[in-house]
Write a structure and sequence with these properties.
Blueprint (H helix, E strand, L loop, with lengths): L16 E5 L9 H17 L6 E4 L14 H9 L3 E5 H6 L10 E3 L1 H10 L2 E5 L1
Parallel strand pairs: 1-2, 1-5, 2-3, 3-4
Helix pairs in contact: 1-2
């Protein structure tokens, strides 16, 4: 299979996909709907045939990797499936969540930039 494929076709197993999640909701408007959309998105990633190589959580996105998150088990499943889960250290510090991280590891912006540069595509969710 080539890099240019139709929607629905299985993507090449070698394509490196990075996802940056910069919020704990998706979109603007109803916060409740935004939380539900984010849970649905993370769940859909667990069910996808092709997983991203890395998911980076920044800003309020770090709330998804810390205690009390409704998607912790889904993120643990993704991690078990080989997806690298990274949370911004400066963001954890800002929100005073350093001791609350429950899945993945702490990263910094230099690593995030490197990951995005090495990826074939980066998806940003905010």
């Amino acid at each position: 299979m080539g890099k240019s494929q139709k929607r629905g076709d299985k993507m090449s197993e070698t394509k490196k996909i990075a996802i940056m999640i910069a919020a704990d909701t998706i979109g603007k408007g109803s916060e409740e709907l935004g939380h539900n959309l984010m849970k649905s998105y993370i769940y859909s990633l667990t069910e996808a045939d092709v997983k991203p190589e890395t998911i980076m959580f920044l800003n309020r996105g770090v709330y998804l990797t810390t205690a009390g998150s409704p998607v912790i088990e889904m993120l643990r499943q993704l991690e078990a499936d080989g997806v690298e889960i990274l949370s911004c250290g400066a963001c954890l510090d800002f929100y005073q969540l350093n001791d609350a991280l429950e899945v993945g590891t702490v990263t910094n912006m230099y690593s995030n930039v490197e990951i995005m540069h090495e990826a074939d595509s980066t998806i940003v969710i905010s």
